[in-house]
Specification:
Strand 10, helix 10 (261-266) and strand 11 (271-273) form a beta-alpha-beta unit. The chain has helices at residues 17-32, 38-43, 65-75, 104-134, 153-162, 180-186, 189-199, 213-221, 234-244, 261-266, 276-279, and strands at residues 49-56, 60-61, 80-83, 90-91, 96-103, 141-143, 176-178, 206-210, 226-230, 249-253, 271-273, 286-290. The chain contains 11 helices and 12 strands. The chain folds into 2 domains: 17-125 and 281-290, Aldehyde Oxidoreductase, domain 3 (Alpha-Beta Complex); 134-279, Aldolase class I (TIM Barrel, Alpha-Beta Barrel), CATH 3.20.20.70.
């Protein structure tokens, strides 16, 4: 259950327009197809103007407002977009997010793309907040993964931050994460770690995934700085945290939701990695209504 009494206090700036505009432009082009919005062209007079409001239809955390604004602007720069709520706002059903005024045709043409981005990003922020709220009384923090929708990683990771989570690596090039297949192909944990250290620059972090306490002990013997405790049950996680005893950053993963997260966090892990908050988060229901 989302705690609607808490507000997001993270100092977040919107993503730069340079990053967002290609995404919105591509979505609009996909929707416009070869003939444009033939429905609005047929029904709505060219000179008609309207005022509509973006409104929340269910509780959640707002994210992606700039994407929605860009959708309207790219169709018609003359459309007015008056913001009532900022990203990070805890929404209740009926809350006005923004007011949109201008060419009725243009507004209706941009509507679906604006809502698609806003609903997706707000859904990610809401899913993240549900877990972040559930573990707020502990030292643990929720973090995302690379399990993002293709082309939308920067937006979804921004939405995770809006929801009170933290970001894991952004891609294959900004950190080394040694997983089970790397270990198997390398011939064991030691050769995998040694090869990684030999190749990594001084700014590159190395994380090792372990499935058992025996693997964790080997990681500690090698002085690995970050360990991913993968799919361990609660008693095993508790023992793993005791073994680490502050010598490494601990990250837990596997079967995490708002109900299971508190027990995982109570083991003392530093981070809880959750893939579904980006790849499968339910879209937040937001509508655009004529007033």
């Amino acid at each position: 259950m989302l705690n609607m009494s808490k507000s997001n206090t993270l100092p977040l700036d919107p993503l730069p327009r340079l990053m967002l505009e290609p995404l919105v432009r591509a979505a609009l082009l996909e929707d416009l197809g070869r003939s444009g919005d033939i429905t609005s062209q047929a029904i709505v007079p060219a000179q008609e103007t309207s005022t509509l409001q973006l409104r929340a239809r269910q509780p959640g955390v707002l994210a992606g407002l700039e994407l929605a604004r860009l959708a309207f602007e790219l169709i018609d720069p003359a459309i007015g977009f008056s913001v009532e709520c900022d990203d990070g706002t805890r929404l209740q059903p009926g809350d006005c997010i923004a007011q949109v005024h201008g060419s009725a045709r243009a507004i209706l043409t941009a509507e679906r793309v604006a809502l698609n981005f806003l609903g997706m990003a707000s859904g990610v922020a809401t899913a993240t907040a549900q877990i972040a709220d559930a573990i707020a009384h502990t030292q643990a923090r929720v973090t995302c993964t690379r399990k993002t929708l293709p082309g939308l990683r920067a937006v979804q990771k921004y939405a995770v931050r809006v929801g009170g989570g933290r970001n894991h690596r952004f891609g294959l090039d900004d950190a080394i994460l040694i997983k089970d297949n790397h270990i198997a192909i390398a011939g064991g944990i030691r050769p995998a770690v040694e090869r990684a250290r030999a190749a990594a620059g001084h700014m590159v972090q190395i994380e090792l995934e372990v499935d058992t306490l025996a693997q964790l002990q080997e990681a500690l013997d090698l002085q690995v700085r970050v360990v991913l405790l993968d799919n361990m049950d609660i008693p095993t996680l508790e023992q793993a945290v005791r073994m680490v005893d502050g010598r490494a950053v601990t990250e837990a993963s596997g079967r995490v939701n708002a109900s299971t997260a508190p027990a995982i966090a109570a083991t003392g892990v530093n981070l809880i990695a959750v893939g579904w908050i980006t790849h499968s988060a339910p879209v937040l229901d937001i509508g655009l209504d004529v007033i």
